[in-house]
Give the backbone structure.
Amino acid sequence: MGRWVLLALALSAQLLQSQAYNVGSSSNTNGSYGENGLVMNYYGDSCPQAEEIIAEQVRLLYKRHKNTAFSWLRNIFHDCAVESCDASLLLDSTRKSISEKETDRSFGLRNFRYLDTIKEAVERECPGVVSCADILVLSARDGVVSLGGPYTPLKTGRRDGRKSRADVVENYLPDHNESISTVLSRFKAMGIDTRGVVALLGAHSVGRTHCVKLVHRLYPEVDPTLDPGHVEHMKHKCPDAIPNPKAVQYVRNDRGTPMKLDNNYYVNLMNNKGLLIVDQQLYADSRTRPYVKKMAKSQDYFFKYFARALTILSENNPLTGNRGEIRRQCSLRNKLHTISKR
Ligand code: HEM
Ligand SMILES: *[C@@H]1O[C@H](CO)[C@@H](O)[C@H](O)[C@H]1NC(C)=O
Ligand SMILES: *[C@@H]1O[C@H](CO)[C@@H](O)[C@H](O)[C@H]1NC(C)=O
């Protein structure tokens, strides 16, 4: 009996906390499967502790290495936006195929070994039950909370893909200097509208960008749209036109509050302190500028549409039912004779 009271308390606490941002593409939280085969609390019977174990690991890792939360947030984009949320991002290269992690778009991705830490904690409790794809998505959700962002209830039930999608990564992930029209159309194909794109790029309110992705805005000529004070800062951090690829030279994405997921990103854009060309274009383009202004003014507005866009991203074309597998180890697909029958 006591267990149920606790469960009810925990549930209502979570609802209270999350109500404001439970604005996902699909609002059915009553246990019914959506068209894409995902459902709230998929592991309710098979591994009831799964979501709490993941949340706890994310919190513990965040205490030791704050930048793990940046990685969980970036991962959901790099996995889900490339055809499917299927943890293909996590696969290592094999003799036959190169991993997504090794493509140019993945430059700077880090902390994969700590994702294994989360997976191992889940496997200790429920071996072979929880997919790496769901761990990747839920760790992003929980990482956002560590960074001070909104809590977003998300569905589960994704299964893990068996193939690297490295060959098509560039068709889905825009480059740092892509035109805004291309960026908008790539996201629109996933069901994320213009406002959603502006909100989602607010992820660049945390973390860092290496000089290789920035120097073309500084050398040989300085991009005239950049704030002069920010140019000085960027040149200080990136003193060479051709940065040594081995040197760890980078600029923080949001100099004001680099560790917080907040709307200061939009304030920066309005002050011509956007780091990447794609960032700065959000303020330069008339389609996106109104949303930048609104998000700069209201953190709540930013959080609301960030949570909504994150939900859509997390539901992009998942593998469900008996497609894919439940990987034992996130960086390796299962050997065929050990494929989980669950
Ligand atoms: C037009 C789309 C996007 C482009 C072109 C882009 C590009 C980049 C680039 C070039 C970096 C710097 C990597 C480095 O030098 O280490 C970066 C960092 C980052 N991106 Fe994006 N990004 C995009 C969208 C997103 C989205 C949608 C999210 C999450 C929802 C995201 C989350 C992050 C995070 C958290 C970092 C910091 C990572 C760290 O410090 O480890 N990005 N992005
Ligand atoms: C709740 O589940 C039923 C099916 O059991 C479904 O028809 C209904 O749309 C769901 N409610 C919501 C709000 O999604
Ligand atoms: C974007 O930057 C890359 C270098 O990172 C460069 O090779 C490419 O030509 C640039 N594209 C455009 C459209 O400027």
The longest strand covers residues 208-210.
